[in-house]
Structures are given as C-alpha cells and as structure tokens.
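Lay summary. Proteins are chains of building blocks that fold into shapes, and those shapes determine what they do. In this project we predict the shape from the chain. Here is one chain we studied, written as its sequence of building blocks.
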Amino acid sequence: MDLKLVKNIINLISDSDVDEVSIEEGDFKIKVKKRSDSTMQTVQYQMQPQQQQPPATPPQPAAPQAPKSTESAEKPDGEVIKSPIVGTFYEAASPDSDPYVKVGDKVKEGQTLCIVEAMKIMNEIESEFSGTILEIIAENGSPVEFDQPLFIIKKD
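And here is the predicted shape, written in a compact code that computers can read:
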C-alpha cells in the first residue's frame, strides 16, 4: 500500500465538495469519508490477504516527531504554530536559500515561517501573531501531519 497515495486522496477530498470516495484496485480497498461536523477525514481500508501469507495489519499512525532540541526535556513557554495540512516541511524556499526563520528571530504577524509542500503545491505557513521563535520543532524535509506542531513562538 502506498501511504503517499492515501495522503493525496485525503488532501483531494478535503479540498473538494466531495464527501466520500471509495477505490478498489485488486486486493486493495480504500474508503475516505469527510465528517459532517468538521473538515477532518476518516480513512478506512482493507487489504485481502494473499494465499499462504498472514493477514495484513493496518499501519499505525506515525508517532509525533521529537523536537530538534534535546537540551531540555521541558517545552519552552509560548504559542504553538501547527501545520494546517499534511505535507513535507521545508524551512527555506529552495535548498540554496537561507531558512525563513531561525531560533531567536523576531517575527511579525503574517511573516512566512516555512513551506509545507502538498501535492507539488508550496503552501507558505505564516505567523499568526508577532513574537520570537523559541523552537523549531519540525525538521527540514520531513513529512508533517495535519495539526502537527511546527514552531513555538513567544508572543510580544
């Protein structure tokens, strides 16, 4: 099963007026359905076991990524900026560019903090308020989930 395909299907559903999609291809079946009370989706899938193989178990959700900083076990005080979409976290516009922000930088409301790429679309994530970057939680080039913490910012 291709996890990227599942993520792409979820993103397509969330960005469209379609409420439910079912796909069957060989022994792979997936059903994605929007909840009526929010924009979050539930995913149901099943794979039929092939002969002489044990039944496939569904993959477990990825554990939240550990923060980059291992100096302190306790989180800095501040507001958390979370990913609004599933995608890949990039700290700069291109591999040769400087990061948008670094720990200790002062940011203004609306300032670009990073990019989350989803389906080849570069989505700029902006600061929701002015403050100082206390921690960058996500790692450059790593996959991020919906609502996953990306930054901790101390409000001004």
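What the prediction tells us: The CA atoms of residues 66 and 137 lie 7 Å apart.
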